[in-house]
């Protein structure tokens, strides 16, 4: 089965006037929103992707290090799109990138003009910055986060001067931002929105389904998740998920490059995989067992721990080795801080394996190796064994970087 790269080979010669905008086009533009354009001047009338490609590659090179989190496939996708008939004349009109460690915000958006009389506002997901991930965690604690408010303000600013039709979308956190922005703007702007694409983005801490703004755009929202989703099942999600087939599992299923494509749409799956169902229910169990204060303390303490290494990105944290970086700290000498991080973590692990024991059919368990069954029945013992092995490796001066 094909993917978004194959889609550009199959249909890249068809202009939007020949084949209308579709859900696969949406994901491609949302992935291109990952490109760092902050040092590239955007002309007032915009710049088409074919011209932007040459400027970008000259500045960043063909193999730009996108960091630990992002996928180099974005650069290849950019080149393929910029060289295709379908996307080469698509223009970037506006670009914003905002990272503020004090305000705890990571926000970025790219405004595309498609050439068919419409625009596509693509909100970027979480990048390599540690503060970006903290803002994601804050979504599970706060009613709203700064990036959501920035998303609304950007959409409003675009529509002050632009009176045409538009689509909104985002991947990962960007999907959440696209819904938040669309439900928060005026009815006049909402009437001009054609579709809102949430590509494997997390939900919201409290239900927004009762808000009038959300009700007005509900039928325009497409919630796309891979069958092995671990991000799109976070927080409160609507029941009408479009689950698509994916040739990758775990976190690799999230990035979108392996979502299966046939023609102008993603191939639908029968439903979420068992692993995603287990993770979803385990998170629900965790939220039921932790108070608001405990969740906030966990988030603050966990990221204080990361920032205390002196790193601002996960790439910097990984350069020495994440585990080595954290072991070198005196952070966990404080038993109270240790408890705030470890107790919720162990609770999530317990909930995960408890749910796995309930969801996985007995006939499947019978076919599992003894070690897997032990992991389901006695997760803490298995984890303790893993840490003992890690300590033994450390004593033998073996490489324990992760």
* Rg result: 22 Å
Helix content: 40-55%
Question: What general form does the structure show?
Answer: globular
Q: Could you give a short account of the major beta sheet?
A: 8 strands, mixed
Lateral strand order in the biggest sheet: 1-2-3-4-5-6-7-8
Order of helices and strands: HHEHHEEEHHEHHEHEEEEHHHHHHHH
Distance between the termini: 32 Å
> Number of DSSP strands?
10
Q: Whole-number average pLDDT?
A: 81
Measured by DSSP, the beta-strand proportion falls in 5-15%
* Classification by helices and strands: alpha/beta
With helices defined by DSSP (H or I, 4 residues minimum), what is the helix count? 17
Describe this structure in words.
The chain is α/β, with parallel strands linked by helices. Helix content is 47%, strand content 14%. It contains 17 helices and 10 strands. It has helices spanning 4-11, 23-32, 49-60, 73-82, 130-138, 146-161, 173-184, 187-190, 212-217, 274-289, 292-307, 314-319, 322-327, 335-359, 362-367, 370-377, 379-395, and strands spanning 47-48, 91-100, 105-113, 118-123, 165-171, 193-199, 221-226, 241-244, 261-262, 265-266. The chain has an 8-stranded mixed beta sheet, with helices on both faces. Strand 2 and strand 3 form a beta hairpin. Helix 11 packs across helix 14 (335-359) and helix 16 (370-377) packs across helix 17. The longest helix is centred in the last third of the chain and has 25 residues, at 335-359. The radius of gyration is 22 Å and the shape is globular. Residues 371-380 and 386-402 have low confidence and may be disordered.
């Amino acid at each position: 089965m094909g993917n978004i790269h194959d889609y550009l080979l199959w249909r890249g010669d068809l202009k939007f006037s020949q084949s209308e905008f579709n859900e696969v086009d949406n994901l491609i533009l949302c992935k291109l929103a990952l490109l760092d354009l902050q040092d590239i001047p955007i002309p007032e009338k915009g710049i088409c992707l074919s011209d932007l490609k040459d400027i970008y590659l000259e500045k960043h090179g063909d193999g730009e290090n996108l960091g630990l989190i992002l996928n180099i496939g974005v650069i290849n996708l950019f080149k393929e799109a910029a060289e295709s008939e379908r996307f080469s004349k698509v223009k970037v009109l506006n670009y914003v990138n905002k990272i503020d460690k004090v305000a705890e915000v990571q926000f970025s958006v790219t405004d595309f003009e498609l050439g068919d009389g419409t625009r596509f506002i693509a909100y970027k997901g979480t990048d390599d910055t540690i503060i970006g991930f903290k803002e994601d965690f804050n979504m599970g604690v706060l009613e709203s986060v700064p990036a959501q408010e920035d998303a609304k303000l950007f959409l409003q600013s675009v529509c002050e001067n632009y009176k045409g039709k538009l689509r909104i979308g985002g991947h990962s956190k960007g999907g959440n931002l696209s819904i938040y922005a669309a439900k928060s703007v005026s009815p006049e702007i909402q009437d001009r929105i054609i579709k809102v694409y949430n590509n494997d983005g997390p939900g919201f801490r409290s239900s927004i389904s009762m808000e009038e703004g959300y009700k007005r755009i509900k039928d325009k929202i497409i919630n796309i998740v891979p069958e092995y989703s671990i991000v799109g099942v976070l927080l409160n999600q609507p029941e009408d998920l479009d689950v698509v087939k994916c040739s990758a599992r775990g976190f690799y299923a999230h990035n979108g490059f392996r979502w299966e494509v046939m023609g102008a749409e993603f191939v639908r799956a029968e439903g979420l995989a068992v692993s995603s169902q287990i993770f979803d229910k385990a998170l629900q169990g965790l939220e039921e067992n932790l108070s608001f204060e405990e969740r906030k303390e966990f988030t603050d303490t966990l990221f204080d721990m990361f920032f205390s290494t002196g790193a601002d990105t996960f790439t910097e944290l990984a350069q020495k080795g994440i585990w080595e970086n954290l072991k070198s700290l005196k952070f966990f000498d404080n038993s109270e801080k240790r408890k705030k991080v470890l107790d919720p973590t162990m609770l999530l692990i317990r909930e995960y394996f408890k749910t796995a024991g309930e969801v996985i059919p007995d006939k499947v368990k019978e076919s599992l190796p003894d070690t897997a069954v032990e992991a389901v029945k006695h997760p803490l013992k298995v984890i303790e064994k893993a840490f003992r092995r890690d300590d033994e490796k450390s004593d033998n001066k073996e490489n324990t970087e992760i």
